[in-house]
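Deliverable D2.4 — example input (structure tokens):
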């Protein structure tokens, strides 16, 4: 059942959620416990950025179902470790059926790791500089944009540093996943923490 006033849907426990959370079993826990929660660590943000880049052109559920495989393949998304990957690692990743075997995206993930590892905390600072505390939650899914002026600006900043596969739409998806923007619908039961103090 969907609340006609703002598009939230009633979940199996009777609580209102963003409708997409009910479209697959894996989405329920991801929506309730992770999506939109503040991620402030460099490694956590590198992971979100990399997964969103791999998702481009695919459905998010495909990435979510392969996430643990990605974590194993990419050394837990620790930028310093991924930055040390060489051609042997590229070959290993291209033969790993547990992830998305896209050569351009794999090379970009390694290249991006080198930039992030060198950049350090500044990487996280740039992403969180686009956090807008005054922004209201969307009422319906129609109110959720594919990109925003902030994601356009963030994409430009990151690409200026050499980050690849992160256009405005992918940047916005990363911002949603990492809690830089809160796109849980207005009546969704999930509450945004008061500050971005949570790591991950």
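Example output (designed residues):
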């Amino acid at each position: 059942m969907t609340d006609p006033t703002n598009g939230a849907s009633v979940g199996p426990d009777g609580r209102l959620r963003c409708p997409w959370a009910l479209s697959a079993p894996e989405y329920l826990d991801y929506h309730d416990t992770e999506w939109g929660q503040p991620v402030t660590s460099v490694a956590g943000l590198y992971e979100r950025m990399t997964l969103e880049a791999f998702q481009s052109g695919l459905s998010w559920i495909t990435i979510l179902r392969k996430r643990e495989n990605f974590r194993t393949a990419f050394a837990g998304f620790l930028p310093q470790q991924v930055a040390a990957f060489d051609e042997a690692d590229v070959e290993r990743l291209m033969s790993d059926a547990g992830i998305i075997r896209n050569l351009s995206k794999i090379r970009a993930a390694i290249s991006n790791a080198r930039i992030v590892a060198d950049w350090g905390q500044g990487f996280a600072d740039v992403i969180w500089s686009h956090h807008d505390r005054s922004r209201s939650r969307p009422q319906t899914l129609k109110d959720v944009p594919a990109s925003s002026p902030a994601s356009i600006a963030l994409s430009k900043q990151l690409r200026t540093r050499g980050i690849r596969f992160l256009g405005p739409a992918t940047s916005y998806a990363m911002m949603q996943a990492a809690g830089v923007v809160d796109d849980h619908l207005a009546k969704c039961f999930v509450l945004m923490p008061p500050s971005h103090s949570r790591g991950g």
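Residues 103-119 form the longest helix (17 residues).
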